[in-house]
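[retry 2/3] OsmC family protein: previous attempt timed out, resubmitting with same input.
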Amino acid sequence: MIEIERVGDHEFVASNERGATVRIGRKGQEGSFSPVELLVAAAAGCAVVTSETLILRRTGGEELSAVADAVQSESGNEVISIPVTLSYDLSSVDDPEALETVVRRAVEQFCTVTRTLKQSATAPLQLPMPLQTAEDPL
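[retry 2/3] OsmC family protein: success.
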């Protein structure tokens, strides 16, 4: 579970049960991630975490990184794509195409974030119910 608490004007801190935190704010706000940036980070992070062991074992290297960005609709109110680019050294790989195939397959099968985005997961919003009083018959 993730808990998000307001810490100032347009400033929030998300925390998990393991004690990790991340600052959330509006786009461009110093020292924080916007919600869309967190979505992009989740997509890229899931791909790189999912493929890390596979890539490093086959490349024999230690360098691995990911870059991603949100492609938004013309209105700017929807993310329509999150292209993720993984970077690693192929100089010691005998068959780069085979590595590409297994990395793509691993991310498509095991990356929960990517799979969820492809399924267009919903995010139902629950709001507090108003307290009923004796004067309020409903």
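[retry 2/3] OsmC family protein: The chain has a mean pLDDT of 93.
[retry 2/3] clearing retry counter.
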